[in-house]
Predict the 3D structure of the following.
Amino acid sequence: MKRGVLVKQEKRNFDHEASSWDEKPGRVKLAEDVFSTIRREIALTKNMDALDYPIQGQKAHK
């Protein structure tokens, strides 16, 4: 995308996309790898919650 050019993005239907998300093995492997790393690096407890998307108003880390 060129700098300064706005592209209209249609709102995506999460439920529709989520229904077939795990049909691609690479996505499942990535999710498993991310979770394995989190579990290895952080002492998880039952009192913790996780979000897999940026909180509104905060920029996602790249």
Observations:
- The chain has two helices and no strands.
- The chain has a mean pLDDT of 81.
